Amino acid sequence: MRMRYLSPYAERVLVGYPRLASEDTTKRLKASPGQTDLPFVDIPNDALPLLDQSAK
What we know:
Order of helices and strands: HH
Distance between the termini: 24 Å
Mean pLDDT: 76
């Protein structure tokens, strides 16, 4: 409500965070286009869901 009081004509938008790691764990075994490093390769598969939930 305070936002409406301070800026009555402002448009409010809720923004989330992108996923840190893809649900498809095989994607982390391939480098991104133009990259040589493998993303999240040193994180075990069973730790990825926890990592994903902590970012929400």
